Amino acid sequence: MIRTFNIFAFLFAIASTTSAAAPDGALYLYGDADQKKFLGCLSCDKRNADSVCNTYGRFGSKYGNLSIWNSFGYFGSKYSKGSPWSKYSSSPPIIVDEGGNSYGALTTNKYHPNKATIETFAQLAEFVAVYEDLDAARALYCGALLDALTNLHPPIP
Protein backbone atom coordinates (compact mmCIF):
# COMPACT_ATOMS: atom_id res chain seq x y z
CA MET A 1 0.00 0.00 0.00
CA ILE A 2 2.76 2.47 0.92
CA ARG A 3 4.78 1.52 -2.18
CA THR A 4 1.72 2.11 -4.39
CA PHE A 5 1.18 5.52 -2.82
CA ASN A 6 4.87 6.40 -3.32
CA ILE A 7 4.69 5.43 -7.00
CA PHE A 8 1.63 7.63 -7.53
CA ALA A 9 3.26 10.52 -5.65
CA PHE A 10 6.37 10.12 -7.80
CA LEU A 11 4.30 9.93 -11.00
CA PHE A 12 2.46 13.10 -10.04
CA ALA A 13 5.72 14.90 -9.31
CA ILE A 14 7.18 13.88 -12.67
CA ALA A 15 4.01 14.69 -14.60
CA SER A 16 3.92 18.11 -12.95
CA THR A 17 7.50 18.92 -13.93
CA THR A 18 7.86 21.33 -16.79
CA SER A 19 10.62 21.09 -19.35
CA ALA A 20 11.73 24.70 -19.50
CA ALA A 21 15.20 23.59 -20.59
CA ALA A 22 13.87 21.51 -23.49
CA PRO A 23 14.81 22.98 -26.88
CA ASP A 24 12.41 23.72 -29.71
CA GLY A 25 12.12 21.04 -32.36
CA ALA A 26 12.69 17.32 -32.31
CA LEU A 27 14.78 15.46 -29.77
CA TYR A 28 16.43 12.21 -30.81
CA LEU A 29 18.17 9.39 -29.01
CA TYR A 30 21.47 7.96 -30.23
CA GLY A 31 23.30 5.03 -28.68
CA ASP A 32 26.02 2.43 -29.01
CA ALA A 33 29.70 2.94 -28.20
CA ASP A 34 30.08 5.68 -30.85
CA GLN A 35 26.67 7.27 -30.12
CA LYS A 36 25.71 6.99 -33.81
CA LYS A 37 23.03 4.29 -33.67
CA PHE A 38 19.62 5.97 -34.07
CA LEU A 39 17.28 4.81 -31.28
CA GLY A 40 14.23 6.91 -32.07
CA CYS A 41 12.59 10.26 -31.63
CA LEU A 42 11.85 11.30 -28.04
CA SER A 43 9.54 14.21 -28.84
CA CYS A 44 7.64 12.93 -31.89
CA ASP A 45 3.97 12.11 -31.87
CA LYS A 46 3.28 8.51 -30.84
CA ARG A 47 1.95 7.74 -34.33
CA ASN A 48 5.29 8.68 -35.92
CA ALA A 49 7.14 5.55 -37.07
CA ASP A 50 10.36 6.77 -35.41
CA SER A 51 8.77 7.64 -32.05
CA VAL A 52 9.97 5.84 -28.93
CA CYS A 53 6.28 5.85 -27.97
CA ASN A 54 4.97 4.08 -31.07
CA THR A 55 4.06 0.67 -29.65
CA TYR A 56 4.16 -0.87 -33.11
CA GLY A 57 7.37 0.80 -34.26
CA ARG A 58 10.89 -0.55 -34.00
CA PHE A 59 11.88 2.12 -31.47
CA GLY A 60 8.75 2.04 -29.31
CA SER A 61 7.92 -1.66 -29.16
CA LYS A 62 8.91 -3.48 -26.01
CA TYR A 63 10.14 -6.28 -28.28
CA GLY A 64 12.21 -4.27 -30.78
CA ASN A 65 15.97 -4.74 -30.74
CA LEU A 66 16.48 -0.95 -31.03
CA SER A 67 13.96 -0.09 -28.34
CA ILE A 68 14.85 1.33 -24.93
CA TRP A 69 11.63 -0.32 -23.66
CA ASN A 70 12.84 -3.87 -24.47
CA SER A 71 14.09 -5.08 -21.09
CA PHE A 72 15.83 -8.04 -22.77
CA GLY A 73 17.53 -6.00 -25.50
CA TYR A 74 20.90 -4.27 -25.54
CA PHE A 75 19.35 -0.80 -25.37
CA GLY A 76 16.73 -1.61 -22.72
CA SER A 77 18.28 -4.12 -20.33
CA LYS A 78 19.19 -2.98 -16.85
CA TYR A 79 22.41 -5.00 -17.23
CA SER A 80 23.63 -3.56 -20.55
CA LYS A 81 26.35 -0.89 -20.74
CA GLY A 82 24.47 0.67 -23.68
CA SER A 83 21.13 0.95 -21.92
CA PRO A 84 19.76 4.06 -20.24
CA TRP A 85 18.34 1.82 -17.52
CA SER A 86 21.60 0.30 -16.30
CA LYS A 87 22.82 1.90 -13.08
CA TYR A 88 26.37 1.03 -14.19
CA SER A 89 26.11 1.97 -17.86
CA SER A 90 29.29 3.36 -19.34
CA SER A 91 27.84 4.36 -22.72
CA PRO A 92 24.13 5.14 -22.37
CA PRO A 93 22.27 6.81 -25.25
CA ILE A 94 22.53 10.57 -25.67
CA ILE A 95 19.77 13.08 -26.35
CA VAL A 96 20.39 15.22 -29.44
CA ASP A 97 18.34 17.92 -31.18
CA GLU A 98 17.93 18.49 -34.91
CA GLY A 99 21.04 20.67 -34.99
CA GLY A 100 23.22 17.98 -33.43
CA ASN A 101 23.42 19.66 -30.01
CA SER A 102 23.68 17.16 -27.16
CA TYR A 103 21.60 17.43 -24.00
CA GLY A 104 23.41 14.70 -22.12
CA ALA A 105 22.89 11.00 -21.63
CA LEU A 106 19.61 9.38 -20.73
CA THR A 107 20.86 7.27 -17.85
CA THR A 108 20.05 5.89 -14.44
CA ASN A 109 23.77 5.88 -13.64
CA LYS A 110 23.95 8.63 -11.01
CA TYR A 111 27.75 8.82 -11.42
CA HIS A 112 27.74 9.32 -15.18
CA PRO A 113 29.56 12.60 -15.97
CA ASN A 114 27.17 13.61 -18.78
CA LYS A 115 23.65 13.05 -17.42
CA ALA A 116 20.62 14.53 -19.19
CA THR A 117 20.23 18.28 -18.69
CA ILE A 118 16.55 18.29 -19.61
CA GLU A 119 14.51 17.79 -16.44
CA THR A 120 11.91 15.54 -18.08
CA PHE A 121 14.55 12.95 -18.97
CA ALA A 122 16.39 13.26 -15.68
CA GLN A 123 13.09 12.53 -13.89
CA LEU A 124 12.29 9.62 -16.21
CA ALA A 125 15.71 8.09 -15.47
CA GLU A 126 15.19 8.64 -11.73
CA PHE A 127 11.80 6.92 -11.90
CA VAL A 128 13.32 3.84 -13.56
CA ALA A 129 16.23 3.84 -11.10
CA VAL A 130 13.86 3.87 -8.12
CA TYR A 131 11.03 1.61 -9.30
CA GLU A 132 12.71 -0.56 -11.99
CA ASP A 133 9.42 -0.74 -13.87
CA LEU A 134 9.85 -0.07 -17.60
CA ASP A 135 6.17 -0.60 -18.38
CA ALA A 136 5.15 2.07 -15.86
CA ALA A 137 7.95 4.37 -17.04
CA ARG A 138 6.87 3.95 -20.66
CA ALA A 139 3.23 4.59 -19.78
CA LEU A 140 4.21 7.71 -17.87
CA TYR A 141 6.58 9.08 -20.49
CA CYS A 142 4.45 8.22 -23.49
CA GLY A 143 1.39 9.66 -21.76
CA ALA A 144 1.74 12.66 -19.50
CA LEU A 145 5.36 13.62 -20.19
CA LEU A 146 5.23 13.30 -23.97
CA ASP A 147 2.03 15.35 -23.98
CA ALA A 148 3.79 18.03 -21.91
CA LEU A 149 6.77 18.05 -24.29
CA THR A 150 4.47 18.21 -27.30
CA ASN A 151 2.61 21.17 -25.77
CA LEU A 152 5.88 23.07 -25.29
CA HIS A 153 6.95 22.53 -28.89
CA PRO A 154 5.20 22.38 -32.23
CA PRO A 155 3.96 18.88 -33.09
CA ILE A 156 6.40 16.80 -35.08
CA PRO A 157 4.62 14.59 -37.61
Overall description:
It is a single chain. The protein has 157 residues and is an alpha+beta fold. It has one domain (2-152). It is built from three helices and four strands; from the N terminus they run H-E-E-E-E-H-H. Strands 2-1-3-4 form a four-stranded antiparallel sheet, with no helix packed on it. Helix 1 (2-16) packs antiparallel against helix 2 and helix 2 runs antiparallel to helix 3. The longest helix has 19 residues, at 134-152. The protein is globular. The N and C termini lie far apart (41 Å). Residues 14-20 and 152-156 have low confidence and may be disordered.
Write out key terms for the chains shown:
alpha+beta, 4-stranded antiparallel β-sheet, 4 strands, about 10% strand
Write the layout of secondary structure elements.
Layout: H1 2-16, E1 27-31, E2 37-41, E3 94-97, E4 102-105, H2 119-131, H3 134-152
Summarize it.
The protein has 157 residues and is α+β, with helices and mostly antiparallel strands.
Please state the average pLDDT score. 84
Q: Approximately how much helix is present in the residues?
A: 25-40%
* SSE pattern: HEEEEHH
Strand content: 5-15%
Structurally, how many domains make up the residues?
Answer: 1
**What is the terminal-to-terminal distance?**
41 Å
Shape label: globular
Rg from C-alpha positions?
14 Å
Specify the biggest β-sheet: 4 strands, antiparallel
- Uncertain segments are 14-20, 152-156
The strand order across the widest sheet is 2-1-3-4
Give the number of helices.
Answer: 3
Count of strand segments: 4
Structural class: alpha+beta
